[in-house]
């Protein structure tokens, strides 16, 4: 009888752990879907993750609680709290040794160093991120590092080559992401401002907009519309520029000013 009870308890525990794992995944996904649209609504799922963390004390609920809260605090301009939670997420991921999660948290720590004006430290951390990502064959980490290097590269041709390298990485892997949408926008602006090639600029703006829609990334749509206004002004299409500007204002009012997100992955 005791043996039977032990077996039953074991299976109940396994079912409970599996359910917690499913809940954690769903809460994290729901957070990701809302954070760019409505950070306060996304906070609801962080609270759900905290409950999971407190009850089950599982690795993933603890990791995503701190990782997501770091992102929430960043968007609400509480940078010290944001960095603290990203450091917690990083420490948790190190204990488990999951490369992609270690890299994701480390990217944000590098970003925070950049925001604090610690550019050298940020670049050094990104160099470590690139090395780690290559060993782990982690596309997002590789692309994020190249994007940061491009952002601080003064030589326009080298900057463009890095962005095109990111574009090729995603194309070769048949993958899309919010970072790729931003990179399409960066390339478009270079063609618009420095290269004087409005046709190519428009092509990349359209790609930025399309990818942003497909991956549900409102800041990318906002950036694409901003670039379309710039293009319309350059081509003396002032009525179109005014219409696009009004649309941009409306879009910004709905989700806040998303330009603050454009650096982010």
UniProtKB/TrEMBL annotation:
InterPro entries: TPR-like_helical_dom_sf. Keywords: Signal. Residues 1-18 form the signal peptide. It comes from the Bacteria. It comes from Maribacter dokdonensis. This is Tetratricopeptide repeat-containing protein.
